[in-house]
Amino acid sequence: HPLTVVNYTLLGLASGLVAAGALGALAGDTAFATSVTGWAVATTALAWFTRGLSLRRNARLKPKSTAQSATGIQSPRVVQKSMGFTGGSFNTREFFHGRSALMLRSVKWLFLLLSFVVPAVLLGGVYGLADSFGQVTLLLTLAFVAQFVGLIAERWFFFAQANHPQNLYYQTIS
Predict the structure, then answer these.
(1) Which residue, 19, 80, 82, 154, has fewest beta-carbon neighbours within 10 Å?
(2) CB atoms within 10 A of CB 148
(3) 80, 170 Cβ separation under 8 angstroms
(4) How many Å apart are CA 74 and CA 39, to the nearest integer?
(5) d(CA 86, CA 88)
């Protein structure tokens, strides 16, 4: 979907600007660090907005795959009796995360906070501190670390949220 390209372009720009600000502050160039902070806040906010749009869109999607299309059996009632494996397979390891809906919701809120909210608040705190090297450096470094951890959680969520047709075929891991 086009939002995916927009999201990851903006996430790359936002995280790159936050990293540039943190590196600039660590190198002692607070003028550079504070100058990129405005752009970092703007791209982080825009990335937050577009990622929110994609989350809303994805929540309304209806899967095109069914148990019938996954198995090729057109009977109206397809029920799995056995996975057919004694020790798992590539499909069950790679396309089924085995996490609960509560875990997925928790990771979603974690990545939203760490990728967008926390960095935006920390970056906003940089304004007015242009003369304070230590505080600017601390805020920008914390913003970078928070966003980095948040983006790792976002990547996991992105793949865990997907509805792979093979999960319909294997249904559950017993």
Answers:
(1) 82
(2) 16
(3) yes
(4) 54
(5) 6
